Amino acid sequence: MTAPHRSSGWGRPVGRRPRFTGLRAVMVAGLFFSLFVGRAAEAAERTPFQVRCEDTIKKTVTVLVSQKHGYSIDTHLSARALTVMKDVAPAYSFAAGLTRTESRVEVALGGPILQDPASGYECVAPQIDVELYYMPVVIYIARELPPDSCAYKEVLAHEMRHLQAYTDHLPKVDQQVREALTKRFGDKPLYAPSGTAMSALEHEINSGWLPYIRGELARVEEQQALIDAPEEYARLGKVCGSEIATILGKLRPAVPARRP
What is the pLDDT of residues 57-72, one digit of tens each? Predict the structure, then answer.
């Protein structure tokens, strides 16, 4: 399950959405779990099958691991090329900097299953391993900006704010998803008709949990938009004696002189 890159940078707040991988090492998916569990919950006592499932097989395990893969700075591309990478920009405007990465989520499922031939049901204790991470972040600074210049340092500082937004967002998603998974699956097995538990669990992960996680990761867009506020563009246009605006202004096509 994938989506394109998301880029942010100095210019207009424009970009593409993060990319998400599909299930990794999926063994298992369950919309009808609640029916059987609900009826069981109404009983005054647990059935022998419930006792065997809940007391003998390993409890549900949810593991969430977020990773960071660092960043690099690229100064080889021109402001024109960075503008193209941004996809959308005002006429005759150019991107002095750009921050680009991909967000990915991988889910591995498994868990022991017990059968109950008498009832025709089975139980599974889902073991869910979720991994969130960013591909290495690349910060692009237009090659027109000399590395030792005030303009370069200001643009880099701006792009580092985008990098920090990515870095700060990942552990927040980690915690939110961990809590949601724990609330959903708790510490008890799930029940389903024999032969369907794992496929039902896989379906739930694919149709519900992956979109949910994708949405939580995409919330970083809100912070990126705040960093690229119009006030920030105005400030960058004036710092360093308007050096950034002067350098990028030279890239605009000359306006033909009017004939007398």
Answer: 877 888 888 887 889 9
Residue type, 25: A
DSSP E strands in the chain: the ranges are 6-8, 61-67, 71-74, 97-101, 103-110, 113-116, 121-124, 127-134, 137-141, 190-193
d(CA 187, CA 231): 50
Q: Which pair of tokens denotes residue 101?
A: 């990465």
The pTM of this model reads: 0.74
51 to 116, 119, 121, 127, 197: CA distances (angstroms): 12, 14, 14, 20, 18
Q: Which residues pair with 192 in a beta bridge?
A: 122
Residue type, 85: M
DSSP assignment string, 13-32: S----------SS-----TT
Crossing angle between the packed helical segments 150-185 and 230-249, to the nearest 10 degrees: 140
Alpha-carbon span 205 to 189, nearest angstrom: 16
